[in-house]
Amino acid sequence: MLALLVAAVLSHAPQDPAPAVPAPARAFAVLGKTVVTMAGDPIQDGGVIVRDGKIERVGKEAELALPADMPVLRAAIVTPGLIDAHATVGLSGLLNIPHDQDQLERSSPIQPELRAIDAFNARDELVAWLRGFGITTVHTGHGPGALVSGQTFVVKLRGRSADQDVVVPLAMVATTLGDGGRAREGKAPGTRAKSVAMLREQLQKTREYVQKKQKDAATPTDLGLDVLAKVLAGEVPLLVTAHRSHDLLSALRVAKEFGIKVVLDGAAEAYLVLPEIQAAGVWVLPHPAMARTRDELANGTMELPKLLLDAKVPFALQSGYESYVPKTRVVLWEAGVAVGHGLPADAALKVLTVDAAKLLGIDGRVGSLVAGKDADLALFDGDPFEYTTHCVGTVIDGVQFTGTPR
Amino acid sequence: MVFRCFAALAAVGCAVLAAQEAPHAFVGARIIPIDAPVIERGTLLVRAGRIVAVGPTAEVRVPDDAVTVDAAGRTIMPGLICSHSHIGAVAGADSSGPIQPEVRALDSINPLDPGIQKAQAGGITTVNVMPGSGHLLSGQTIYLKLRDGRTVDELAIKLPDGSLAGGIKMANGTNPQRDPPFAGTRGKAAALVRAQFHRAREYQAKIAAAAGDPSKLPERNLGLEALVDVLEQKRVVHHHTHRQDDILTVLRLQQEFGFRLVLHHVSEGWMVAEQIAAAKVPCSVIVIDSPGGKLEAAHLSLATGGILDRAGVLVGFHTDDGITDSRLFLRSAALAVRAGMDRDKALQALTIANARMLDLQDRIGTLTVGKDADFVVLSGDPFSVYTRVLQTWVEGKKVFDFADPKDRVYAMGGYGASDGQAMSMCCFATQEGQ
After folding, report:
1. Pairing of strands A173-176, A166-168
2. Are β-strands A283-286 and A54-60 bridged in parallel, bridged antiparallel, or unpaired?
3. Regarding the domain delimited by B11-78+368-433, which CATH topology (the fold level of the hierarchy) does it fall under?
4. Which residue, B398, B407, B403, B347, is CA-closest to B375?
5. Topology of B80-357 in CATH?
6. Rg of chain A's alpha carbons, rounded to an integer?
7. How far is B166 from chain A (nearest CA, A)?
8. What mean pLDDT value characterizes chain B?
9. What DSSP state is assigned to residue B28?
């Protein structure tokens, strides 16, 4: 495997990312000049012993007492596998032709019953592309563009199938306010106020449905209302894609009225309403630092992650949704540009690992290099955020993958 | 940069002030001249819009009347040149037909477009502003110096014969495929282009036959005139093309009609690098964060720049702004270095290589005595994510300064960053100038 990694580093010719190694080595070690565990200080000359897909031990290489026959991967910097806190990868395919675009169903403005697990193509080439940058877990699913476009889920990027790789089957319900949520061709919602009215009506309808179901078990099942019932119960947040400051406030207003959790997504003008966001205690997923600053993002800033950090607003980073090229962004690179625009590198790495895991409720499994957690690691030949650094290998559940070819 | 001439001063007044400016000496910087080895502790001396001296600080004599700028710890390199951009709200041909050589980008540029200030913030000093790729030929492009100007003429580059520098934009592949009168297939696209070049040859022959006799000249045809410029190699064809077979089709047309050519984007150029090298045609390469997004870009590779360079092709990079952000142009070359391209070649690909593709290599692209004083002051290595463009200078005038809050908003983004420059009822002025 090491030979394979070296080959990938040395090769300059484009090549398809290597497929998953089918049978993971039962036990191996990953050694780094610096091992960033995200649980305590980075370990110099450290290592991680992986066994049966889990982290067995973490420590100084000298103290790990590696058996002589244990296979070893080496890198300058080893970090926990990176987590993309919001993408549409697997649903918005590489070719960008109708048959591989499943992130948005336009037949109706409110369709919370659409499950991500029924749409995710684990073998889309962009899944492998992201994995090549050390990204091991993605929160993905239905995209922006409809008032309620469907569900999202959390999946490992092992590239097998949604069923095999799923981590959280229902993570959030994707919602869009503002211009992005308008329906086309004169259909509702056509305005901001109508969007909010329709969302409130649907939540009110859900309340009545829940009450009716409690009284009468024979109430016919409504798949969409069943999902929104989980939102009302506070089990599942609404992921609200909105950019303008007043749309962000609309999201907070609805959240307060119904006592539901919201996560603000995109949030280009969040810096105008930081006190309100702080008071609401909600998470923000700032748009990719390199998102195009047009339309509702006209006032966007590459400093947004730094401004959120300064304001102590909890946030995670995302690759987001792209309708054209690049068909997917790379959250590692978006974090890099945020770092270049004021976000401290150690904070960025924390956001890409433990913080994102916490937001997604998977911090018991991933996000830090701790014995007992999933063996998800990213290997770099230098500062992960530098433009010229390579991810030289990715490990997911103890399965080794090559980094992206140069 | 926000204009600092008061309302009472017209643009002419600004220009006079600029010409009278004292020489500026940037002392102690790490200087990357591009056409010479890096100078670890160097001085750049500029006067009246030109580079007067560049060399080790110990060797460059700074005149007494010079404004001295302590540039220790900074890196200075030539202003970046983007060989393919859509800033300035440019528009070219309309939907009436697939080939419209009479249409000029010149007539659409909005010099107040904030994209220009964002490009200045990215260290870009010269751009080839092009109409889009939805036509086989979408119009004449225009090369702009990103001076601070109110009118497109103030940004344009005048050639010795008085004309404005620019090329012509062509495209093949799927972008220009549409219902008739557009081409629906690749074969039809090539046939339409070939037919039009034959019309241009015939027009050219009629003009030659007239031998200066006005009574024998053919009726003026603006489109054919532009194509005759192309046939006579006065105007370079900037050709959008992605797929390997489409690239070869462009080379075939070039062979047939003998125009000067730059291939743009070349997503699959790595597959036909030897053929491109053999044709001695330069490539302006786009760097995108992932393959796909369209069928033609499914095999896009970050390694393309390096592969073409090693095959002997002259390689430049471009932003294709708004496809990629002008403020992150350095990053495109850095990612190519990541993918194996030689560092020096990648620096050339942002500067002198692009200057060559625009026929401006004698004026810009290197820090060479006599060339235009177009340069950027960086906080560190050009290819580091931690490096910031601190200042951008065009012809000896500072057009971007990160330390100025009015400029900073264009670099970082924020409220109003996508608004055009503030205008008064009279003319350009700062708000406090009113």
Report:
1. unpaired
2. unpaired
3. Urease, subunit C; domain 1 (2.30.40)
4. B398
5. TIM Barrel (3.20.20)
6. 21
7. 27
8. 93
9. E
What is the H or E stretch that residue B116 is in? helix B114-121
pLDDT score, position A181:
94
Cα–Cα distance, A83 to A92 (Å, whole number): 18
pLDDT digits (tens, 9 = 90+) for B196-230: 999 999 999 999 999 999 999 999 999 999 999 99
Which strand ranges, in their side-by-side order, compose the sheet holding B261-265?
B137-140, B168-171, B237-241, B261-265, B283-286, B315-318
Q: What distance, in Å, lies between the first and last C-alpha atoms of chain A?
A: 18
Q: Hey, what are B207's tokens?
A: 């003009």
Q: Mean pLDDT across the stretch B426-431?
A: 47
Alpha carbon distance B138, A221 (integer Å)? 56
Omega cis (within 30) before A326: yes
CATH hierarchy code of domain A2-81+368-402: 2.30.40.10
The total number of residues shown for chain B amounts to: 434
- Tell me the percentage of chain B whose pLDDT exceeds 90: 91
Q: Do B337 and A388 touch (CB under 8 A)?
A: yes
Question: Would you put residue A100 in left (φ > 0), alpha (ψ -120 to 50) or beta?
Answer: alpha
Q: How many Å lie between the alpha carbon of B121 and the closest alpha carbon of chain A?
A: 13
Residue with tokens 């045809």, as numbered in its chain: B221
Residue B239 burial (CB count, 10 A): 29
User: What is residue A156's three-state secondary structure?
Assistant: strand
pLDDT for res A24: 57
pLDDT at B338 (0 to 100)? 97
SS3 of A254, please? Answer: helix
Enumerate residues 332 to 361 of chain A having a beta carbon within 8 A of any beta carbon in chain B.
333, 336-337, 339-341
- How many whole angstroms separate alpha carbon A313 and alpha carbon A135? 24
B270 touches chain A (CB under 8 A): yes
Q: Check: CB of residue A122 under 8 Å from CB of residue A136.
A: no
Mean pLDDT throughout A97-125?
97
- Indicate the angle between helix axes B186-210 and B244-257, nearest 10 degrees: 20
Any CB–CB contact under 8 A between B274 and chain A? no
pTM of the model: 0.94
By C-alpha distance, which of A175, A144, A142, A141 is closest to A155? Answer: A141
Q: Which residues of B touch A325 (CB under 8 A)?
A: 288, 290, 292-294, 297, 323
Same fold, B11-78+368-433 and B80-357: no
Give me the residue spans of the domains in chain B: 11-78+368-433, 80-357
**Do B303 and A341 make contact, defined as CB atoms within 8 angstroms?**
no
* pLDDT (mean) for A81-102: 97
